[in-house]
Design goal:
By secondary structure, this protein is an alpha+beta fold. It is built from 14 helices and 18 strands. This is M20/M25/M40 family metallo-hydrolase.
Length: 456
């Protein structure tokens, strides 16, 4: 099926495609919030119903029912050949702060060629567009490989249930190629083949002090202050030059090869364009290290939020009983999550302010980073297909972000990961007013319509 034939099919079916897309986006499938478990189940059931008319057997894997289910689907091959496993996630990030959304986050709205809704891009829009491309190929009678699908409902909170189930499901997930639809284009809008991802650990660190909130006049200068302590503790994580100060954290870091460095840097990094898009210059991280290297090949420790004491209107003169910070660490290949975690625990114990106690909780992620070969048969097929999608062809990128389950699925299934996505910075994933342009959606559709037949 040619690109022009795919475009004609899209035009003829546009109304139905967008109607289904909007239906999918209306599910408030916030997988990290137990209150939204029924919404996650309903969303997963909707996906199964969508897949069955395409020739898939589709079912939910529920476990004990306490977590968002997996969608597991399979379609037999039209002829002997490869088996492709498509991975994506139907869960979405929380929508706070709600008052910054221009339209309700779960009521899709098209403005200026972009669909605005939570999940419009990350990740519902990406894999759904790809499946619509597959649908076009099926209706056109294209020869296709065996296709397996696993969609999870906990990617945004660590992929715990899929990680638990993966080994038991290994025969049903076994494949030659692991197709991941959860990444992005490069900054210029060219398609990108992701050749590496960072791993991730996220956790909460809490400092506890007095048994109850204290009057800051009666107890100021006497009682240790957890709010001040959490600021000191967080500040201790980095050296003045921005490098990570945690002993042992950066052990075993492997620098990029010459070929990787050349491919990563040949596109350059436009600091002014970055500033125009996000509002600040890219000056975070270790000074003296190129921006692309900092973002793609070096680990990070980032503070996601700090909370403690009174935050309402006016004043309330207290020394709070506790304070906490939410943190995430991005890891690079050869960094052991277990080793990194031990280093972090030792650091927090050593730097805990006098008179306070430290607790580490809500530890999730614990997945390593990885890099992929840049010259494999599957990669070459992807390059050819992406040249049809965009005549400029594809670039290689090494993502600073994480998809925690990919390394686990690779190890369990034996499949070669192929990470191609169509997100852009302006999509504002994880933020209010997330969106996905219809041009990006159609590129993802083309990719789906072309890559499955190419892998047959």
């Amino acid at each position: 099926m040619t690109k022009s034939a795919l475009d004609a099919w899209f035009a003829a079916n546009r109304v139905a495609i967008l109607a289904d897309y909007y239906s999918l986006l209306r599910f408030p499938s916030i997988g990290g919030d137990p209150a939204h478990l029924p919404d996650c189940v309903a969303c997963a059931e909707w996906v199964c119903a969508f897949l069955r008319p395409l020739g898939f057997t589709a079912e939910l894997v529920r476990g004990d029912g306490s977590k968002p289910p997996l969608v597991l689907a399979e379609r037999p091959a039209d002829a002997s050949g490869r088996t492709v496993l498509l991975y994506g996630h139907y869960d979405v990030q929380p929508v706070d702060p709600v008052d910054l959304w221009e339209t309700p986050p779960f009521e899709p709205a098209e403005r200026d060629g972009r669909v605005h809704a939570r999940g419009a891009q990350d990740d519902k829009g990406q894999w759904f567009a790809l499946l619509q491309g597959l649908r076009a190929a099926i209706e056109n009678g294209e020869r296709l490989p065996a296709i397996r699908i696993v969609l999870e409902g906990q990617e945004e909170s660590g992929s715990g249930f899929l990680a638990e189930q993966a080994l038991d499901l290994r025969r049903r997930l076994a494949a030659d190629v692991l197709l991941v639809a959860d990444t992005g284009k490069d900054a210029s809008g060219r398609p990108a083949i992701v050749a590496g991802l960072r791993g991730v650990i996220h956790f909460t660190v809490t400092l506890r002090g007095p048994k109850y909130d204290l009057h800051s006049g009666q107890h100021g200068g006497l009682a240790p202050n957890p709010a001040q302590g959490i600021a000191e503790l967080v500040a201790s994580l980095h050296n003045p030059d921005g490098s990570i100060a945690v002993k042992g954290f950066c052990d075993n870091i492997v620098d990029p090869t010459e070929a990787e460095f050349a491919l990563a840097t040949e596109r350059g990094f436009d600091e002014n364009a970055y500033r125009d898009e996000v509002g600040v210059f890219p000056v975070g991280g270790e000074r003296g290290v190129p921006a692309i290297v900092r973002n793609s090949f070096r680990p990070t420790v980032e503070v996601n939020g700090i909370h403690g004491g009174y935050g309402g209107p006016g004043s309330k003169t207290v020394i709070p009983t506790h304070a906490f910070a939410k943190l995430s660490c991005r890891l690079v290949p050869d960094q052991s999550p277990a080793h990194v975690w031990q280093c972090l625990k030792a650091h927090f114990e050593e730097h805990c302010p006098r008179g306070l106690t430290v607790e580490l909780t809500e530890v999730t992620g614990n997945e390593p980073g990885f890099r992929l070969p840049i010259d494999s048969p599957v990669t070459r097929i992807a390059q050819d297909v992406l040249r049809e999608v965009d005549p400029r062809g594809a670039v290689f990128t090494w993502e600073g972000a994480s998809i925690p389950i990919v390394a686990r699925l690779r190890d369990v299934t034996g499949a070669a990961p192929l990470l191609v996505g169509f997100g852009m910075q302006e999509d504002r994933i994880h933020c209010p007013n997330e969106s996905f342009s219809l041009d990006q959606f159609q590129d993802a559709f083309r990719w789906g319509g072309l890559i499955f037949p190419a892998l047959a």
